[in-house]
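Ticket #4471: structure output looks truncated?

Reporter: J.K.
Steps to reproduce: submitted the chain below (320 residues) through the standard prediction queue, then opened the result file.
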Amino acid sequence: MEMPLSRDLIVVSGTTHPALAAAITARLGATLGRVRFNRFSNENLKVCVEENVRDRDVFVLQTSCSPVNESFMETLILIDALRSASAGRITAVLPYFPYARSDKQDEPGISITARLVADLLVTAGAHRVLALDLHSPQVMGFFRIPIDHLTAIPVLCEALLAKDPTVERVVVATDIGEAKDAGRFAARMKLPLAVIDKRRTGDDEHAMPTAIAGDVRGRHALIVDDEIATGGTILEAVGLVRRMGAAGVEAAVVHPVLSGNAIERLRGSSLERLLVTDTIPLPPEKRDPRIEVVSVAPLLADAIGRIHRGESLYDMASRR
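Returned output as attached by the reporter:
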């Protein structure tokens, strides 16, 4: 159902996720603002805002996906172009936050890059940020402007319950750090919770699950995480719950990063189903019959409408 808004609102999009931008604007009953992107032979980028944005409430949709650094630079230039065009307020809508995992200095001499991303967004001209399922909530503290942090967990839960409401499941957290979010899945779906004890052995992103707290025997294990990158964490968890006697295994994650050889690993695993959202577009080479996508467009459109009208997002942010 469309939600007509005043003509002062305008949504513009970068080039990373046009399908999501179209779905959000259709939900809002709005049209997408015209922006021209020119890429030159020297790899420089020119962004020209061809819509009248003077004194208007502008929402910039851009997710983080390959090529990550080029996409983020495009975001900054687009925001700066909107500022130059006298936009009244600029909200950066970031379904998947750039460098979300670089949120702490876990060894000497490295950048806390998520903080740098926050600083650059402010410098470019963003007045506020709307983000989904940050890897760590501490990223919100990196901003000197308002940030609204929402979760797509209810969207995933509704999709799971709508398709298989009678399946006897147990929610499985991939590690203790994911136990809180997994607990939200379990609470919303009224399911028991199990937690995997996972140990990393080096810098190769390979995680080894060693034990599980909770009973998965004879149940369908629902492994949950905020994202799937190389697939190591989730697919090692699949192997463990299988060995522990799970009757079936599926996974639900918000952000389908699927980097490296993740798709090949998925195709060679015994995972029966992977439910993801469309915070990141899935190109043809990353598609698989076991991957099912549910859209966050209604969630983001609702949030954009509320921000534009000056309404609270408290009940949305508290659906966890």
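Triage note (M.O.): checked the attachment and the full token line is present. Residues 187 and 320 are 9 Å apart (CA to CA).
Status: closed, working as intended.
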